[in-house]
Amino acid sequence: MTSQNPATPIKVPASAANYTMATLDPELRTQINQALIDDGLVTKIQDHLLHSLHAHPANWPTAVENHAIALLRSGEVTTFPALLRRVIEDVRRDTSLAPTTNGAEANGKKSNGTPAPAAADSNGSPAAPNLALPSSVVEDALKVTRESLETVCSFAENGAS
Fold it and tell me: Over the stretch 44-60, which tens digit does the pLDDT of each residue have?
């Protein structure tokens, strides 16, 4: 592992804030990715995200695992690629539908911190779990990612390159 503060940080132009995947400079992206890997920051980000997911009261990893097992047992999916596609689709759907709240998680919590009652389908059976990524975990992961990027990058101010 190299130093946490590279001698020559990667210079990122202010215009990069407006880049999309279609306009992102592949060379700049490669340089940033390589610096993050070389400095062990990718592992730091991944470890922090995994810890946050397991530490959150929603117990998201277990909810996803239980959902995947239920899909396999029910026969709705029969192959690993189909299972992966379906679980990712369900997580994206629930995350996009989750209300954004200040401090209150949409993942099985009411705003006062008490668990929301379990929903039921029309047959009275428990409904599928909410697989939305907890917003506080996402915010925390973004903070660690931003700090890691600031370690390896030098961001130009508006008007400078």
Answer: 999 999 999 999 999 89
